[in-house]
Amino acid sequence: MAADVRRSGSERVVRWSIAFALLGSAVLVDPAADAAFDAPQRLAAALGACVGAIALLWSRVDATQPWSRSARIAAGAAAALGVWLCVATLASDAPDAAWHGLRGMLPFALLLPLGASSALDGVGGVRLFGVAVVAVGLNIVVSLLQAGGWTLPLPVSHLGGRLPGGALLGNEGYVALASALLGAAAAAVALNTRSVRLRHLALTMLLVCCAGIAVNRQATSAMALGAALLVLGALRLRARRLAGAAALAVLLGATMAAVPALRAPTFGAVADVATYQRLTTDRLGAWAAALEMARMHPLTGVGPGRFAAQAQTHRFAAEIRLGTRLPPPSTATGFAHAHQDYLQLAAEAGWPALALALLAFAAVWAPLLRLAQSPGAVEPLLLLAVLSAGAVAALAWFPLQIPCTAVLLLLACGRAWRLVARGPQAAAATRDAAPHASIALRVVATGLVLALLWPQSGRYRAEWQIAAASAQLEAVLRGRERGSAANAAVAEAERLARAAAAATDDNRAALLLGIALILQQRGDDASRVLERAIARGERAELTLNLGRARTVLGDSAGADAAYLRTAWASPLALATLPATMRADLSARVARLESQLRAGRLQAPPPLR
């Protein structure tokens, strides 16, 4: 009896933790943080995952059934992937930064065992699905209202994107991705439920999700939902091979696009680079940078979480090698993500890591396809639809980098693994964890999980400091603070930026510190700060302000070199320079582009 009470108590904690992660990753907003949407949502997901994992560690379980062969393959591949990520971290040129990135990934990895736990069996799983519906549905409704002219009553607008429908996720693309996942689940329920009322409710949800994708004009999300519907349709028509053939076609297409020897006679023969840039909304630069990283570091990549820091220099290298320009979108100065989760994994941890991830996914997806054919098998069908939509979305977006969609997909992966390991009926009838784990082992594991949470507080405090420093500098640059008040504001911004830089290696803090030092005419100090930041990870904003720091020092040649490299990286970064300087830099970039197309340019403009 005591064991049953402890087990049910731990399961309740796991369920509440998952519910917190689902809701927090979708609705939390902190206007006081610099990343007002991403930072609180990422923290909520990490907190929920870690608390749930600790509860799972201390649960009492019954004897478990042996896993199926496919489940053993998936678990082995996932474990090997974890080991390989550690190897990639140690092999990185910047192991400290790579360790920081890996430590940020690990709390999300804990969602896999949470999804595979018995806490999602029966009514508990249905209730958590309802929480996910509420979390995503709320964002869709807010996005639709924003499309009609309503604005959020918050001192933040949106994280990015082209349209105002970012809702509580901060970007209309994120809302559309979540809509695709929820729409896939709704379609699965509508196709396989005997309840007329539930079918009508699911169809209504599907229509709302389609509206969320349509108003935000997101082709990738539409294709992801379409792929899920194709899989569902194939199963409905008893044409399971059609779903497998579609998956194989997607894999072959992605391979042909990634391998140069295959790309030239296929995609290259159909259209030119400019056409593909328009079709992919300027994603080619991100993909080329990721491929360049994987080409230069095929076994271990550049290190977990290092794509953003390495994207600009590797994009430059890819442009020189390919003889064509691959600039970022006109609304951005660079790429923070590869806009393809598969390529980003290969870039950060090497091709072996990608192979292991694909093996683990295939070992779950293929048997799940068979389970979904069983009459009345709503849950396998729902999971199959969601995972299929996520797999297609990851070809042109980054659902595993977005807290909300990452939580949904990782929980779905864990739950799908449980069904594959034991079958739907057996999974609901057994309880699982480590029945023979000693107290000492559980204490050690709990300490490791808590160690993942500990740095989160310092990083989150840095978000507040970065936001406050940015506000101080903006007040000075816009003329709202003058004289002694302006001097005090700049000094306070310097203090906040230094504190943030000490807590995180995020270059946003270094950029603000450099600007504060430039405003104080401390060009030498600013140059050192910015050069160190550029060595960690080059960004157009950093090289632009390095040019300003060199101007303060009277180094006109060095400043000109920094400005030209900035112009080569992104014309948008030059918006704050005088018009005559922008025109001159644009003309010089045009001449360099002519040399690049002619094959005469051997390197991008240097910083010195």
Automatic annotation (TrEMBL):
Q: Where in the cell is it found?
A: Membrane
Residues that span the membrane, as ranges: 45-61, 73-91, 97-116, 128-153, 173-191, 198-215, 221-237, 242-262, 349-369, 381-400
Q: What is its main location?
A: membrane
Q: Where is the O-antigen ligase-related domain?
A: 206-357
Q: Which UniProt keywords apply?
A: Ligase, Membrane, Transmembrane, Transmembrane helix
- GO molecular function of the protein, one example? ligase activity
Q: Does the keyword Ligase apply?
A: yes
Q: How does it sit in the membrane?
A: Multi-pass membrane protein
Looking up Pfam families in the UniProt record yields:
Wzy_C
Kindly list the GO CC terms recorded for this protein: membrane
Q: Which PANTHER family match?
A: LIPOPOLYSACCHARIDE BIOSYNTHESIS PROTEIN PA4999-RELATED, TEICHURONIC ACID BIOSYNTHESIS PROTEIN TUAE
Q: What is this protein called?
A: O-antigen ligase
Give the species: Chiayiivirga flava
Q: What is the lineage of its organism?
A: Bacteria, Pseudomonadati, Pseudomonadota, Gammaproteobacteria, Lysobacterales
